[in-house]
From TrEMBL:
Pfam families to which the protein is assigned, alphabetical: DHH (PF01368), DHHA1 (PF02272)
DHHA1 domain segment(s): 241-323
Molecular function terms, GO-annotated: nucleic acid binding
SUPFAM superfamilies on file: DHH phosphoesterases (SSF64182)
DDH domain boundaries: 25-165
Originating organism: Corynebacterium appendicis CIP 107643
Gene3D superfamilies in the record: 3.10.310.30, inorganic pyrophosphatase (n-terminal core)
InterPro entries reported for this sequence: DDH_dom, DHH_sf, DHHA1_dom, Oligoribo/pAp-PDE_c-di-AMP_PDE
Top-level taxon of origin: Bacteria
Name under which the protein is recorded: Phosphoesterase RecJ domain-containing protein
Length: 328
C-alpha cells in the first residue's frame, strides 16, 4: 500500500534514521493503556527488532494492563513500574502529554534530548526533543507510515497490533477519513481476522460486567449547560475495580450515542477521590473542554483528570460547557 500522509506531513525520515541508528530503544506508552497505546508501542517494537535494534516496551504503572489487550502480540513482555534505563533512545507512543507516562514522567522529563514523541492527539504540546505528532485516526496509523521509512514489511503480528489501535480508536470505523479503510484493507490482507479481533478487543464481557454496567447506566443524570445537554455517568471505585476494560469502554461509547444528548460524560474513579473524565460529542469540540481542565484529545473524544468530590467535578465541567455554549 502507498503512503498514508501527504509529502511534508511530519518528518518521518529524520525519525526513522534516528531510530535505525540506535543501539537500544525504550518505548513508553500511556498509563491505563488502551488498544492504541499497546498496539502502537508493540508494533514499533516488533518493527525495530527486525532491524536488529534492542527494544523494550514500558508503562509507568504497577497495575497490570487490561485483559482485553491480551491478544495484542508483545503485551506479555511489557515492563511495568518506574524504571527507565539511562542508555538508548526513549520513544513515547499515544501519550498526549508528559503526565500520561505516569511513574516514568520524572525520568522522561530529564531525558528530553533522547526523547521522540509519536502521537495523534491534537492537544499534544510536543514535549520531546523530536516530535512526530500528526492528526490521524490512531497512533498506529502513524506507526504504519513510519514503517515505510524504516524499510520494514508488515507481518501478521505487526498487522494485528496496528489494527487493534485503528479499530478501537475509530469506534469500529465510525469516524475517520478514507485512509482508515485503506489501512484496514491492507491489515486484513496481512492476516488480521476482523471478527475475532473485534470480539477479543471490544466485545467480550461477562455476566458480572453486564450487571455492573446496568447499575452504572441506571445512575445516569442529564444536565442542561446553557443550550447544550450533558449526559453524565459515574463509575465509582467499587464498580470500576469489578469491570474489565471492554465494559468500561462500552459505557463511554454509550454516553456518546444517547439520543437528545449533546455531550456524553463518564467520570471514572481511578482511586478514591481521583477521577478520570471521558468526554464524547458529535456536536462540540470536547478537546477544548478537556483542555480547560488540563487535559486534551480529539474533537469528538477527549478527557482529563480531576481530584476531589465528584459533584464538584461535575459542577466545574458544567460551567465550562456553559461558557462554550455561549459562543456557539
Amino acid at each position: 500500500m502507498g503512503y498514508l500522509f501527504a509529502p511534508g506531513e511530519g518528518d518521518f525520515t529524520a525519525v526513522a534514521e534516528r531510530l535505525k541508528a540506535a543501539d537500544a530503544v525504550h518505548v513508553v506508552t500511556h498509563i491505563r493503556p488502551d488498544a492504541d497505546a499497546v498496539g502502537s508501542a508493540s508494533a514499533l517494537a516488533l518493527a525495530l527488532r527486525t532491524l536488529g535494534v534492542t527494544v523494550d516496551v514500558r508503562i509507568g504503572q504497577r497495575a497490570p494492563w487490561p485483559e482485553n489487550l491480551a491478544t495484542i502480540p508483545g503485551v506479555e513482555d511489557v515492563i511495568l513500574g518506574d524504571e527507565l534505563p539511562d542508555d538508548g533512545l526513549v520513544v513515547t507512543t499515544d501519550c498526549a502529554s508528559l503526565d500520561r507516562t505516569g511513574r516514568l514522567a520524572p525520568a522522561i522529563a530529564a531525558a528530553s534530548e533522547r526523547l521522540i514523541v509519536i502521537d495523534h492527539h491534537a492537544s499534544n504540546p510536543g514535549f520531546g526533543g523530536m516530535n512526530l505528532v500528526l492528526p490521524s485516526e490512531s497512533t498506529t496509523v502513524i506507526i504504519r507510515e513510519l514503517m515505510h521509512y524504516l524499510g520494514v514489511e508488515l507481518s501478521p503480528e505487526i498487522a494485528y497490533c496496528l489494527y487493534a489501535g485503528l479499530v478501537t480508536d475509530t469506534g469500529s470505523f465510525r469516524w475517520g477519513t478514507p485512509r482508515m479503510h485503506r489501512l484496514a484493507a491492507e491489515l486484513l490482507d496481512n492476516g488480521v481476522e476482523p471478527r475475532s479481533a473485534g470480539m477479543d478487543l471490544m466485545d467480550a464481557v461477562s455476566a458480572e460486567d453486564l450487571k455492573l454496567m446496568g447499575e452504572v447506566m441506571a445512575g445516569m443524570t442529564t444536565l442542561a449547560a446553557g443550550n447544550l445537554t450533558m449526559s453524565v455517568l459515574r463509575i465509582d471505585d467499587s464498580h470500576l475495580s469489578g469491570m474489565n476494560q471492554t465494559a468500561v469502554e462500552s459505557i463511554i461509547e454509550y454516553s456518546r450515542a444517547l439520543t437528545g444528548s449533546d455531550i456524553g460524560v463518564v467520570f471514572k474513579e481511578i482511586h478514591p477521590g481521583y477521577w478520570s473524565v471521558s468526554l464524547r460529542s458529535t456536536v462540540v469540540n470536547v478537546a477544548e473542554v478537556a483542555a480547560a481542565h488540563g487535559g486534551g484529545g480529539h474533537i469528538p473524544a477527549a478527557g482529563y483528570s480531576v481530584a476531589g468530590p465528584v459533584d464538584d467535578g461535575i459542577a466545574a465541567l458544567r460551567r465550562t460547557v456553559e461558557e462554550m455554549a455561549a459562543t456557539l
